[in-house]
Amino acid sequence: MTRRLNRRTFVKSSLLAGFGLPLIRTDGRAASTERLSIACVGVGGKGWSDMVETAKSPNVDIVAICDIDETANHLGRAAEMFPKATRYTDWREILDKEKTDAVIVSTPDHMHAPVAFSAMQRGRHVYCQKPLTHTVHEARALASIARESGVVTQMGNQIQAFAEYRSAVQLVHGGAIGKVKEVFSWQAGTPGWRLADDRPAGKDPIPEGVHWDNWLGVAPKRPFKEKIYHAFNWRHWQDFSNGQLGDFGCHILDPVFMSLGLTAPVSVEATAPPMNREVWTSSAQVRYVFPGTERTAGDTINVTWIDGPGHKPVEQLKGVIDADKLPGSGSVLIGEKGSLLIPHVGAPKLLPEETFADAEYPQLERQSHYILWADACRGVGKTNSNFSYAGNLTETILLGTIAIRLPETKLTWDAPSMKLTGHPKAARMLTKKYRKGWEIDGLS
Ligand SMILES: NC(=O)c1ccc[n+]([C@@H]2O[C@H](COP(=O)([O-])OP(=O)(O)OC[C@H]3O[C@@H](n4cnc5c(N)ncnc54)[C@H](O)[C@@H]3O)[C@@H](O)[C@H]2O)c1
Predict the structure, then answer these.
(1) Ligand 1 centroid – CA 133 distance (Å)
(2) What is the number of structural domains in the chain?
(3) Which site from 151, 160, 211, 337 is most exposed, i.e. has the minimal number of CB atoms within 10 Å?
(4) Is 12 a residue whose pLDDT tops 90?
(5) pTM of the full predicted structure?
(6) Residue 137: inside a domain, yes or no?
């Protein structure tokens, strides 16, 4: 109880001092350390499992649910599951009216930061889907307000808590492959959301129960088109998503970041087909250089990301692993004493197989990323994908998406000052303008 009260006092002073905002939570109510009340924003799609998995904690109450779509697959289904939860279609109302302890944000990417930042302004703990934000500026702002306010945060890269990724991290930390010299990560699947090469003309009637303006939120206004944006297909469009790297990078690069202790790259460069200002490419290669860490072999380490249908680092990994043994997505860490294959959601494998035939692999139990967060909000344990860690990971992913938009241009990143020195066009892509009427004090 004392912990929460202290946190709120801190939120109050830091908001008044740092962000120039009033303390919105003025009820003085001490949150129970026994139970956690949660509001969920975006309850269809991934938001459904975010909500249901978190509610498996015996200490959690889902008290309010919000979705811009009131129909059966979205708010309707959630309301059936949690009939006592108050229903909303506008997240600004749920944050103002419901004094919950915590908020889960599972909207499309472009709305993560506005909702999560506003929740933290109000002193709420936050679970927010990956990638944490849509722009680098937003990622830095979320990490900053999370740190200042002392709320408990977790980004939704839930695979981090699975035994497979944790084992991979343990193997590297235990020195199984020695210091790491280079990393290749890839996602060779065909994006399920490639729809068109440009924005479709015209408009479709907005279905009953869909609040299109709320779906657009901070994004520039555009007409509703059936099955083009809502639901799921928003991934195709730059205004709402971060493409294939944005979709998978926070999962696949997570054990790379965790095992090597990476923070911010010093440079990034991409090879990608030319693109317009509307849609994402269906393939890309992004080459990052990071400063070396205690777990890497040199002063710097190269991490290469590859995506596109069937695109795998076959040539680059010749002599390390045969092409037919490369999974559809994952990473290979090449170390001084051997290599480690980390399939995306699969058991890690030490290479060469003959050398490591008798190797002992960690035997770990799967944990729940959701329950880890809910427990940490109640003062039990801690989260590993907190916004300090997730902010760095997301910034890295988003710098890669800037490089994809400016192919064959080496971008030099000064992380402390947040500058892409000498690249004014790229620098403008670090942030974006929020739609009039949707600006958020301290964020936009
Ligand atoms: N961690 C994972 O493995 C994983 C998997 C899939 C998706 N995701 C992430 O989850 C998020 C949602 O993706 P999705 O595939 O579920 O998208 P989706 O479009 O299928 O579902 C989004 C849901 O949020 C609702 N919504 C949209 N805008 C909203 C708003 N402003 N306020 C309230 N509700 C809103 C929609 O109506 C829908 O119910 C994305 O950030 C995505 O990257 C993560």
Answers:
(1) 13
(2) 2
(3) 337
(4) no
(5) 0.94
(6) yes
